[in-house]
Amino acid sequence: MSLAQRLRAALADGARRDPALLAGDDVTNLMAAEQRLRSAAVLIAVTDRAEPGVLLTRRSETLRSHAGQVAFPGGRVDPGDADVIAAALREADEEIGLPPAAVEVVGTVGLFRTVTGFEITPVVGVVPPDLPLLPHDAEVAALFEVPLAHLLDPANHRLSTVEWRGAQRTFYEIPWVGERIWGATAAMIVNLGRRLGWGS
């Protein structure tokens, strides 16, 4: 069975086992009641290796929002996008030069709602290893790969708490060599691990 087939089967099984939203579902309580959620999508690009990895970016320090943070390729769903999958593929092409044709989409994880007003669909896809990718300098400061097993291991999921807008906010952090994976990106990884059931 190929990696894509294994991921597709595990996602489908996990959705049947627990169809509810996972980590991050409760953060909507921190948003203003009248705030409308904006649709966004990210690509969780899993490399097709004997030991699969996940492609992550570190955002440029010059960006207006989330500067310097580790993230999946992704962004807002544009009016011209056919759906959230098309949006995730377009953003990955624009940000890191990943051709949509190189991605075998296997499914999505539950919606992730953020305190900044976004409703994000994580799209899972399998990509060939060692593609000659070209990150967009204005948006991406670094592109790197982290072993999937490391990301999904619950032993690497650390909880931290800060005060944000007068309320206590708890978020995940996942350590990696020289990088801090935290916030929505880390929580979506935790969701993926729970949905797949591979890290437990």
Q: Low-confidence runs (pLDDT<50, min 5 residues)?
A: 25-34
SS elements, strand count: 11
Summarize the amount of helix as a percent range. Answer: 10-25%
* Secondary-structure class: alpha+beta
Taking the sheet with the most strands, its summary is: 5 strands, mixed
What is the molecular shape?
Answer: globular
Q: Give the topology string: H per helix, E per strand.
A: HEEEEHEEEEHEEEH
Taking all Cα atoms into account, the compactness measure Rg is 16 Å
Please give the alpha-carbon distance between the first and last residues: 21 Å
Return the average pLDDT rounded to an integer.
Answer: 85
Percent range for β-strand residues: 25-35%
- Count of discrete alpha- or pi-helical segments spanning 4 or more residues: 4
Description:
The chain is of the alpha+beta class and 200 residues long. It has 4 helices and 11 strands; from the N terminus they run H-E-E-E-E-H-E-E-E-E-H-E-E-E-H. The chain has helices at residues 3-17, 84-96, 148-152, 183-196, and strands spanning 38-47, 53-59, 70-71, 74-76, 104-108, 112-113, 118-127, 140-147, 158-164, 167-176, 179-182. The strands form 3 sheets. Strands 1, 4, 5, 6 and 7 form a 5-stranded mixed β-sheet that branches. Strands 3-2-8 form a 3-stranded antiparallel β-sheet. It has a 3-stranded antiparallel β-sheet with strand order 9-10-11. Helix 1 (3-17) packs across helix 4. The radius of gyration is 16 Å and the shape is globular. It starts with a helix and ends with a helix.
